[in-house]
Amino acid sequence: MIRIGKINKLKVVKQQGANVYLDDGVSAKVLLADRKLPANCQVGDTLDVFVYVDSEGHLAATTKKPLAQVDDIAWLKVVSLNYVGAFLDWGLPKDLLVPFSEQHHEMEVGRSYLVKVFLDDQSRIAATTKIDKLLSDEGGDFEAGQKVSLIIADKSDLGVKAIINNSYWGMLYQNELFQPVSKGQKLDGYIKQIRDDGKIDLSLHQPGYGKVVSLTDKILAKLEANNGVLMLSDKSPPEDIYAAFGVSKKVFKQAIGALYKQQLIIIDKSGIKLANSLDRK
Questions:
Q1: At residue 36, does pLDDT exceed 90?
Q2: What's the pTM?
Q3: Cα separation values, 72 from 16, 90, 153, 195, Å
Q4: Where does the record locate the signal sequence feature (predicted)?
């Protein structure tokens, strides 16, 4: 079944003059709005296309990929306004409409907003800035340590709110953020914990021993590249540790603690050294 507002795999079934028709073997034929086939493509081949409803109410498709599909949340810029609403640049020739009824506040040309793409009651693709009502505050079926996709949202007194997998709210705490983030930014994150109240705490770094194991290898490699000496220790500022390894101070301390227990490094006030580095001198 053809999914409007999504990427579909459709077969090229007919070419008549400038018109190219596609279908999935079940639904009605879909006109390829691009008006020509990609290079080396012919009748009988399958294409990945984005399907939508055109201005005449007919199914149409394009090989161009939008910046967001139906059910996605994205950070998109307003390019024009008219009497029906605001129009966003989403990577396709026809801009994406945010009707006035789907705007929290009046939108402005040139500004970007977090929006969710949806199908209206006539199967037309539109967007809304009223995303809060569409997201859950509670943890669903997530597990601690699970990798997820994040979109950075608004700052709060505690840190930064983030949207998880286009469906849930989570929190990145300020004292655990060791890199700059900006609203609308997409990045991978991890479920840190599901709190007793169902709220979701997030981390940008993989929790648990697996993270420490991979970091120990990086620390040893950097020590080898620096003649067995590294001017970082468990007393170093978190910002210096993040700049060197992209992890929190807590994770770094766990890693060098593991290396120390294995008698692979020596820790002192100035930094860490390979345990066999003295043998080189």
A1: no
A2: 0.74
A3: 35, 12, 14, 26
A4: none
